[in-house]
Amino acid sequence: MPSINSYIKQSWRLLRQNRLAALLSILGTALAICMIMVFVILFIANTAAFKPESHRADTYYVTYVKTEGKADGRRIAMTGLGLPFIKECFYPLQSAEAVTAVVRDIWQKQILLSMDGRNTVTASILETDTAFWHVYNFDFVTGNPFSKATFESGLHEAVISEKVARSIFGTEQVVGKELKINFQVYRVCGVVKDVSRFADKAWADVWIPYTAGTHLFYNMEGIGGSFECYMLLKKGHNREDLRQELLKRIDNFNAGLSDVQANILHQPFSHLEKWMGGENSEVSVGKVFLRFGVIAFIILLVPALNISGIILAWTRKRIPEFALRQAYGATRQRIMSQVLLENLLVTLIGGLLGFILSYVALACMSDWLMITSLGQEQLSLQMVNGWVFIAVFILCLLLNLLSAVFPAWKATRQQISEALNS
């Protein structure tokens, strides 16, 4: 009984004898896996949980509010949330583990200066509260978030990223040191590891208390303002619990207003809904997944069918070989095992090549593949899901095996004389 090692050597010799067919099969498998991997890696980077957005599945967002007339329901404005509205309706939510209010201006960077004015950097500032550090899971290199007392007093303290710390101070060990943000002096209370721009809700270069910022204005009887609200769901509650409680609080808030009322429409949105376009309308996640599934299936099916055609033609060409081996005593099981091993070898080589090519493609085409709403970004290992590669690899293997095993099985069922003449 031949060993596995001899089977592999024999399979390798056969592949070398049929170099064109083997090369086309390997490249076809590699390209199929590469295309799907690029597609899925980008999806995972935008939707899967990774630090600091470790709770994406349980985080819900309200990022705008519609202010409308009480009498006619006519829209007056569509804006961010006002702080009175947040304090009355969001902060007291019982179905949320934590609620954070943030002000993010992604289009306007601010100037950071060292105290001597020698080092300057432009940075994105996120103004927030102490609950922010509970909703998001940051890795602190040194120091801590600003405290509740600091927040309530409106003191000028800041958490900065490693990149900012190195640019301004030349080191990450800067807790207690001061810097200027738009010429206002801030004391550094903590330094965090740089955050991927794919974590677009937590991402910034500098985090400061919104009580020390400049965005506390509000309008429309407290409804409108510059804030967004992110809510971490409490265990034992679901999204509908959160929404119904929020709507009740909004109704109570509206009852105290004179001419206008707040309407959050279909919000709060999940992270997945936000990414899929929930900013503007109610989204059907099922329909979006179906659309992505059809696209992925087509991307995979076209090269897979071509590969299958090549392998089918290659296997049919070898039917006389199978018959001759049977004539010399080879069993059906041995022939089928050889075919399976050959195709496993082809798929394995193609799969590994496709896996490497997917990252080469992401690196070479990062100018348009790796762009988020906040700018260009690189991938982190936390965003890579090996199960995706395994699933695509198994699918390619099944297609390849079906293309090869059926003709081989059919050949071994034929009479030897008939197979030799085919």
UniProtKB/TrEMBL annotation:
Highest rank taxon of the organism: Bacteria
Lipid bilayer topology: Multi-pass membrane protein
Keywords assigned: Cell membrane, Membrane, Transmembrane, Transmembrane helix
Chief localisation class: membrane
Ranges for domain ABC3 transporter permease C-terminal: 294-415
Protein location: Cell membrane
Transmembrane segments: 20-45, 289-315, 344-371, 386-409
Entry annotated with the keyword Protein transport: no
Record-annotated MacB-like periplasmic core domain positions: 23-246
Protein name, as recorded: ABC transporter permease
Lineage, broadest ranks: Bacteria, Pseudomonadati, Bacteroidota, Bacteroidia, Bacteroidales
